[in-house]
Structures are given as structure tokens and as C-alpha cells.
Amino acid sequence: MGSVNLRAADLTGVDVSYSDLTAANLWYTDFANADLTGAILTDASGWNVDMAGADLTGAVLTRPSPYDPRFLHVSDISGADLTGADLTGVDFSNARTYGARQQAWTRWPSAMEAPEGVVSRALADADAVCDFSSFNDCQAADLNHVDLAARNLEFANLSRANLAGANLTSADLTRARMTSTALTGASLSGAQLDWANLSRATLVGSDLTGANLAYADMSRADLTGANLAGADLAGADLTSARLTSVTWTGTTADTDTKWPTGFRLTPAWWLITIVAAPTPPAPCVPAASASCPAANLKGVSLAGVDLSDSAFVDAVFSLADLRSATLDRADFTNAKLWNTNLRRASARAADFTGASLLGAEMRRADFADAVLTRADLGYSDLYRTNLNGAELSGASLNYASGRWTNLLGADLSSASLVEAKLSWASLNSATLANADLTNADLKRANLSGADLTGATLTGATLTGAFASSTTTWPAGFDPLAAGVVTWITGK
């Protein structure tokens, strides 16, 4: 719809979101209360354009050439939503601006600050919309204009979600799933998006300044009007992406970065700093005492293999088959073992500090004395898993399940076990101080000698659970009313 003539058109309250109004004639056009989310008005011209009360989230109103004689004069933006809008090509002379709402990443014309009367737009509470600790709960969720700044959303599934106008500044979205996600006018400034899947995502007018997009998949994404100043695109895939009116100041990429066909022939290509891609490391051969830092072993089959005393710091084992493998004393610090099959594996005294074992299959695995500090075991299968003496302080076991899990003497202080289903678990002498056991199922669990000082037991099921006189409960908690059977041992 580029170059369309809308002179004196009455578009009051009309939905023109994502319309291509490039070089459109907008003289005296009335967009009052219209939906202009993600609309492209690059090189549009007009006088006395009324945008009062309009939604301009992520709208692109730019003029690439400073010598272009055309101009776009907007006379009224009062009450408009300007979240993430690029207004650098607009003339606001004598414009009414009272009550217009912006964000810190809204872009105004050069040398112009937000006019008097423009206020900061309030952002919604993302946690009131969906549960980010649940892998699929935020998929396709309506999260427009929410505040997720600096949040850890690593591996989050946000596919098809609406995050238009959201604040994701400095968020960790490493390996996040964001296929077909709407990020129009969103701030992703300084965000970690390495290895994220943004294929077919809508990033119109988004702020990606200083973002780490190394090896991100942005194939077929729409980045029209996006600000990629200072972003790192090393190894990223931008095949068939739309890159019209993108800001490239200080952007870096490497020789492995994939571009749309013909992009290297455009003027924008010369604004990007291209460096040589790093030489790929020699292929790692997983074996006992091997050192394979940051190795990508996604989906590899290592069933029954001896990997004892090896180092896999920051390695990726997602969807790998490690059934009956020997991992004793191995170092998996910050490794990714999402949906990994660890059935009957032996990982005694192994180090999984900060590792992600989301959805891992750990049935009958032996993790005795393993270090799992701050590890994510959400949705993992812990049926008869041996975690005797394991260090799980600060770990997440949200929605983990499995009867007869052995957590004898384990340290679960400050761990999160929300909705965990661990009936008949052995928690004798375990430390659960300040742990969150909201809605956890601990029926018939053995809590003899366990320390639950300061633990949250709201909604927890403890029917038939066993305790002893040395079990320590949170202040005010009545174990008898909760159905706990307390053994009283004689002196």
C-alpha cells in the first residue's frame, strides 16, 4: 500500500496496524484513536495530521534522507501511545501532546526531547498474565506492554506470544523460543538473545541496541525500522529477513552471518563491521577425562559411555541420550541438558552448578553427592532418582515428579519445589530451610529430622507424611492438622 493517497481521509478509530504507508500522502488525514501499531510511514508527507489517542506502538515515521523536501507535520498526538515509536521524521511544531504516553526507547526528532505533557506509559505485570516457571504457559500469551526488564528467560517458550511494546531491556533470552512472536516496538536493548529462535518474528520498530544476537535465528523475521545500533550479529541467520529502514550504527557481524539475497549490494551493508568468524574448534570426542567446554552435543547418543572426570562446562546436551552413562565427578557447570535422557545414569559427585535439566528424564539415575546448586530441574522425572546428600540449594524443582525419590540428607535450602509431585520421597535429615513448597505433593514422604525452618507450605499436601520429634517446621505450622504422622522416639 506504499505511496497511497489518503489526503483528508477520515480514518478515526480504524485498524491500520502494520500497514505499509511508505511515501503516503497524509495531508489533513485524521488518524484519531486509530490503531497504527507497527505501521510503516517512512517518507510519508502531510500537514495537520491528527493522531490524537492513536496507538503508535512500534510505528516507524522516519525520513532516511535529510535532504528530502517532503515533510510530515503531526498536529495532535494527545493521549496517543508512543511506546517504541520512531518519530524522528515528524514535525511536531505547535502540536498538542498532552497525555501522550512514551517509553525510554521512544525516538524523537533529532535534538528534540519529549515535549511537555508527554508521560511515561505504565507497563503491566507479566507474572499476572502467565507462569514463566511453566515451560508452555506463556506460549501464545498476550504480554503486550509488560515489564520483563533484566528477567532471566533463558530457554523460555514465547512462541507466538504478543510482546508488542514490552520492556525486555537486559533480559536473558538465551536460546529462547520466539518463533512468530510479536515484538513490535519492544525494547530488547542489551538483551542476551544468543542462539534464540526468532524466525518469522515481528520486530518492527523494536530497540535492539547493544543486543547479543550471536547465532540467533532471525530468518524471515520482519525488522523494518528496528534499531540494531551496536548489536552483535555474529553467526546469526537473517535469511529472507525484512531489513528496511534499520539503524546499523556500530553493528557487528562475522563471515558466518547469513543475509537476505542481495543485501550485500545495498548501502546498509557498508555500515556494518564484518569480522572473520572464529575458527571452529576441533570436534570434541566425549570420553572419560575429556575436556569439551561449550561443546554442542545436542541430540547426541552417548548411552552407556564412560564420561567420568570429564569437563563439559557450558556445553549443550539438550535432547541427548545419556542412558546408563557414567558421569561420576564430571563438570557440567552451566551446561544445558534440556529434555536429556539420563535414565539410570551415574553422576555421583558430579557438578551441575547452574545447569539446566529442564524436563530431563532421570528415572533411577544416581546423583548421590552431586552439586546442583541453582540448577533447574523443572518438569524433570525423578522416579527413584538417588539424590542422597546432593547439594540443591537455590535449585528449581518446580513441577518435577517422581515417587520414591531419595533426597536423604540433601541440601534444598531456598530451593523452589512449586507443584512438585514427590510422594513417598525420602527427605530424612534434608535441609529445606526457606524452600518454597507451594502446592507440592509430599504424601507419605519421610521428613524425619528434616529442617523446614521458614519454608513455604501453602497448599502443600502432607497427608500421611512421616516426621519425627527432630523435624523442624515453619513458625505457626500445625503438622497434625496437615495430616503428618509424627514418630515420637523414647529416650
By CATH, the topology of the largest domain is: Pectate Lyase C-like
Class based on secondary structure composition and strand pairing: little secondary structure
Q: What's the structural domain tally? A: 3
Q: What's the overall average pLDDT, rounded?
A: 94
**Strand order across the largest sheet:** 1-2-3
Please identify which CATH superfamily of the largest domain we are dealing with.
E3 ubiquitin-protein ligase SopA
**Apparent shape:** elongated
| SS summary, helix count | 0
Look at the structure and give the CATH class of the largest domain: Mainly Beta
Number of strands: 11
Quote the distance from N terminus to C terminus.
Answer: 87 Å
Proportion in helices: under 10%
State the CATH architecture of the largest domain.
3 Solenoid
Sequence stretches where pLDDT stays below 50 over 5 or more residues: none
Rounded to an integer in angstroms, the radius of gyration calculated over CA atoms is 27 Å
User: Main beta sheet, described?
Assistant: 3 strands, parallel
Strand content: 5-15%
What is the string of SSEs from the N terminus onward? EEEEEEEEEEE
